[in-house]
Amino acid sequence: MSLERTLILVKPDGVQRRLIGRIVSRIEDKGLSIIGMKMLQVTPELSKKHYAEHVTKGFYKDLEAFITSGPVVAMVVEGPEAITVMRTLMGKTNSRESAPGTIRGDLGASRQMNLIHGSDGPEAAAREIATYFAASEIVAAPNALAAHLWATDEE
Ligand code: IDP
Ligand code: MG
Q1: Which runs of E-coded beta strand occur in the chain?
Q2: Per the confidence metrics, is the pTM higher than 0.90?
Q3: How many structural domains does the chain have?
Q4: Residue 49, in any domain of the structure
Q5: What is the signed CA dihedral for 79, 80, 81, 82, rounded to 10 degrees?
Q6: For residues 113 and 109, what is the distance between their CA atoms, to the nearest angstrom?
Q7: Is residue 139 part of a domain?
């Protein structure tokens, strides 16, 4: 196991629905560290770069319209196995199928408007973090709580 970083977005539906705080709280409650954070407007160009794997799919046009429809909050989140931990915390892509207790399962009922993005693997995480953040915007401080959150062999 090792510390990982993942790119998280509170999508435009989450921002418009005033759910930023509740989503951020879930990440912090889990013990993960937010080491980069900003609000921005996704442009069509940025959407195509972020969702490169989906650009040729039938739903891409609607996805681009949605992700560019208003501001998002972008975060770099760090912790042991943070990529998988965040995917589990988020729930399934279709919020109607997401388990209760997950962010998508508790807060929404849409496949498209599913509140949150999280990288789906180490390569995607590295690429997406570099797409949204300059190195100077990531501020990793020593985690003073680490001794109480997980064992040293879990870092
Ligand atoms: P993920 O966000 O759970 O990783 P992906 O399959 O990577 O899901 O899809 C990216 C985003 O595109 C989803 O979060 C959702 O907003 C949207 N999306 C996925 N599948 C569909 C679909 O079939 N129709 C419309 N939108 C979709
Ligand atoms: Mg995905």
Answers
A1: 3-10, 33-41, 71-80, 116-118
A2: yes
A3: 1
A4: yes
A5: -10
A6: 8
A7: no
- Give a yes or no: residue 155 inside a domain: no
Band of residue 142 on the pLDDT scale cut at 50, 70, 90: confident
25 CB-near residues (< 8 Å, 6+ apart): none
Starting from the CA of residue 95, give the closest ligand: 1
CATH number of the domain where residue 40 is located: 3.30.70.141
Task: Catalogue the E-assigned strands of 16-150.
Answer: 33-41, 71-80, 116-118
41 three-class SS: strand
- Of 112, 113, 120, the one to substitute when testing ligand 1's pocket (max ligand atoms within 8 A of C-beta) is 112
Q: What is the pLDDT, as a whole number, of residue 2?
A: 80
Is residue 62 assigned to a domain? Answer: yes
Task: Residue 11: give the domain boundaries.
Answer: 3-134
The CA-atom distances, in angstroms, between 20 and each of 8, 56, 121, 136, 145 are 12, 30, 24, 23, 24
Do you know the residue count of the chain?
A: 155
